[in-house]
Each structure stands twice: as C-alpha cells, then as structure tokens.
Input
Amino acid sequence: MRAYGEPIIEITHLQKSFGDNAVLTDFNLTVRQGENVVVLGKSGCGKSVLIKCIVGLIKYDAGSIKLFGKEVSSLKQHELDTMRARIGFVFQSSALYDSMTVRENLEFPLRRHGKKKSKEEVQQLIEETLEHVGLAHAIHLMPAELSGGMRKRIGLARSLVLKPELMLYDEPTTGLDPITAEEISKLMLAMQQMYNTSSIIISHDMHCAELTANRLVVMMDGIDYAQGTFEELQQLNDPKVHAFFLNHK
Amino acid sequence: MESTKQPGPPVPKKADPAWLSIIPDDLRDFLNEAGDITRFAMRFFREVFVPPYEMREVIHQCYEVGYRSLTLVGLTAFIIGLVLTLQSRPTLAKFGAESWLPAMVGISIIREIGPVIVALICAGKIGSSIGAELGSMKVTEQIDAMEVSGTNPFKYIVVSRMIATTLMIPVLTIMGDTIALCGSFIAVRIKSSVSFTLFFNQVFESTEFSDFLPAFIKSFFFGFAIGLIGCYKGYNSKKGTEGVGESANSAVVVASLLVFVLDLIAVQITEFFGYI
Output
C-alpha cells in the first residue's frame, strides 16, 4: 500500500445528535496528506453532517476533530476562516450563488478570504481554474444557464480557486447520468493530482468510490463500521458491507 | 484492514420538564417563535456595529428595496390619494365643508394612510421577496457555501437587507405621501378649479411638523419589522420547495400583522407625548 504523509484530519469518538436523533455516536477517521478517503453510507446516516462538522458548519456534541493539528471546536471565528481558506468544499447541490455569474462565483471566495490580489491576478486565476475544469467558455453565464454536470464542475472550480490542501466532496455525482458522473469522478482525480490535495468524498456511488478512493470507510449507525481499500471491503464477509457492492460489477 | 465495529449504547434522551405540558402546544409554538425572532433581532444589533461593514451589499440592497419598489408604491399611493378624495367629497359637501378637503386628506395621508399603506405594500413585495430568496439560498446550501468562503452570512445577507429596509421604507413613505397628495389634487381638480399652489397651501397650512414627525419615525420601525421578519423566515426556512413557499407566505402575513401592531403602539406613544 502507498505511504501517505502527515495526518491532516484526525477524528476521534465524534458524537452529534439532533434532538433525540443520534446521528454520529462514535465516529473515528484519520486522513493523511495525499490520501483520498471515500465515506460510504446509506442516505440520512450522517455523512453530510460529518463533513459539515469538519468545516465548523455544524457544532459537534462530543469527541474531537483535529484539522491541520488544531481542534476545530476551540478555534475562534477568524482562525476558523483562515482554516477554511485551506479547504475546498463541493456541495451536493453545487451551491452556486444564483444572483452571480460564473466569474463572480469564483471571485467571491478570492475576495472574501482576504488574500490581496490585483484584478489581473484574480482574472488570471479564475480563467486558469475554469480552463482546468473545461469550462472557460462559461465565464459570463449565470448558474441558471448551466446543466447539472456544468454546475458540478463550476462548484469544483470555485473550491479549487483558492488552491486548497484538503477537498471535501458531498455526494459529487448524485443526480448525474452515469457518463457525466464518471467524467466528474475522473476530473476529481485529475484535480487531486494537479493541485496535490487530500480528499474526503461522501458518496454512495460505488463507481465513483472505485475510481477515486485510496481507502473507504463504511459509516453505519453513527460509527465507522468498516475501513479498507475497495478490494478489501468487496471481499469482506459481512452482509452489511456486502450490500453496498451488490449492484456494482 | 481494520475489523468491523459495533455501535455503542443509545444516547439517553433529554426529557422536557413536566410543567411545560400545561402550556398548550399552539401557545408554546407562538412563544418559541417570538423568542427566536427576538434573538434574531438581538443578533442584528450585535453584528451591525462590528466591522467588517458590507457597504457594497447594503447599497445594492437599498437599490433592490428602494428603487425597484418605486413604481408599485407610486401607483398605489396615487390611486389611494385619488380615491380617498373622491370618496370624502360627498360627505364633506353635506356639511358644506368642501373647502376642508385638502386639509383632511393631507392630514389623513401624512399621519396614517401613507406610512401604513406603503408599509403593507412593502411587506407584501419586499417581505415575500426576501423570505423566498433567503429560503431558496438556505435550501440550496448557498448560505453554507458563503460561510465556508470566509463570509459571515448573517452579516452579508441579513444585516445588509435589514439596514436597507429600515432606511428605504421612510424614503418610500415620503415619496408615497407626495404622490398620494398629487392624486388627491387631481381628484379635487376634477370637480373644482383649485390651483396646484392653493391646494398644497391648504394642505401645509393645516398640517404641522408634529403631524409629520411621528409618522416618519414609525416608518423606520415598519421598515425594520419588514426586514426582520423577511430575513428571519427565509434564514430559518425548512428544507424543500414547500419550505421556501411557506417562508415567503408567512413573511408577508407576520410582517403585515406586525405593521398594524407597531402602528397601534405608535399611536399610543404619540398620544402620550401630546402629538394628537
């Protein structure tokens, strides 16, 4: 197995409940530099809650999340914002700002994260990133004019524009046809190599998992039920884990 | 590879205190919502004075709220002024007090009808628009995306809109009052040959600054209430398209109701200070 760098995320005994509904009960995960980890799980099992806890969008009840060596829950707002500038987050719905053009969508994080850049530098960075995701021609379009696949690509470009060290993908291929889903999976892999990032990919698309994962984690009943490579989990004699691979050739 | 893990014992549930069950559910929901809206308003006051100030967004929202409501407010105010004058004339004529028409209409519009009508129109137009826009942003995770991009979404989205409505509703009210008086002049002119100067002289001779000031001040509160409710409903929208629709709808209903409640409070305060 390939050796990876220092741990950039260390999650231990993570717990999160919404009222009576305990979503995460004892979740543990470590992601190392250069590693792509896919978190598999049934819909509604708490996968999205997990990555929202990592970026501080949701406060966890107990346990620990160490991001780049710092405990997320103890960070002050400006420290959290600085930390977030090192993370790219691709939302399930792409979350493009409806009232802004594609260029303004990419400009927004550049402007807001306070890194002083000239207009020319910003323009060059936006054009370069759009070129990487194959949508340089869409720079002046509004999100409403984009197809589902294009929205995903622009969402990915917006996350990459700050050149993050860690990428978090929330169901990146959900709602796409199989061909576009494969294109997006391959693009994610290409971007990971180009930008030298680590990733956590939340998905239940086994084809995406097979293409992108160095390691898979099965989330079940709020815990990290099983971990291993795609092949290891596929061969595991456990009906709960095996269920994920049933429809996958 | 690591072996599979088994889930731990279930987390114990936190029960509500027994005395809470005495309060009817509807009343409890109402009190909860009133508390949440108050907390939301307190958060606005905490954030509005702390930098960074989103001036660009505030100006943009002033344009959206103010400029884009001009036609609707102007047209409605014109019709209200015209109709009010036409409807009042026969009654005043019975008492031989037709010459009091400009004064009566002027006081009615400046003191009460202008601010309340403009606030109700804006509660419908702006309240629903803010509720739906923020609800849609919430449902499509745009608010989360903004936060991940190092932006305080409350400040960028909520504070800017609430400042815009608080500042723009008084401006729209002054404009609405003026247009309503012009409408009234046209209605007067239909039946008699009163000049424009004479009509407005009669209006301003019978009104004092103390008629204008309380109405102007209360329109700031109306604007604040419209922004507050629109933003609160949108920002706390439930998931799904149904949630967005519900946010827009309840923003209009609650904001309109709040306008009347504030008007009632304003009239009591005005009376207390001897302006009536």
Remarks:
- Chain B has one domain: 52-272.
